[in-house]
Amino acid sequence: MRARLPRTLINQLLAHAQQTPEREVCGLIGAKQGEPQHCYPIANAAADPATLFTMDPTAQIAAMRTMRERGEALYGIYHSHPHSPPQPSRTDLEQAAYPETLYLIISLQTQGVLEMRGFRLRDQRVSEVTLEISESR
């Protein structure tokens, strides 16, 4: 499996993860006709945001509404792991509710280098998705 993401979108996701390196960040990615267009950062409302993410429900609903207004569909869900590799955790697997959606995990664990990997999470199973960078959007 492969997923193509515009370089500008990848840069936005990585910048969002770097804004609060001690807390998990999270958000949605909207696509038009299968092509990723926008990222929608959403506040992390988890009780322990250093190790978990829970999207703020009001902000998540607002992001989904904006996607609909733009003619976009949900393409991906992203979050960061400040202190662990970009692998789905047991909690990530348990909470994965969109089996057709791309899950992106950004790791800040490595000094000075961010790592992002993509996955499909379905029925407690993980399938890695090869990420490709496109220059245009």
Give keywords.
137 residues, alpha/beta, Cytidine Deaminase, domain 2, seven-stranded mixed beta sheet
In short:
Helix content is 23%, strand content 39%. The chain is built from three helices and seven strands. β6 (115-122) and β7 (125-134) form a beta hairpin.
List the helices and strands and how they pair.
Elements: E1 2-6, H1 7-19, E2 26-32, E3 35-42, H2 57-69, E4 73-81, H3 90-95, E5 102-107, E6 115-122, E7 125-134
Parallel strand pairs: 1-7, 4-5
Antiparallel strand pairs: 2-3, 2-4, 5-6, 6-7
Strand content: 35-45%
CATH architecture: 3-Layer(aba) Sandwich
> Which structural class fits the helix and strand makeup?
alpha/beta
Uncertain stretches: none
Q: What is the general shape?
A: globular
Distance between the termini: 20 Å
What's the overall average pLDDT, rounded?
93
CATH top level? Answer: Alpha Beta
- How many structural domains can be distinguished in the coordinates? 1
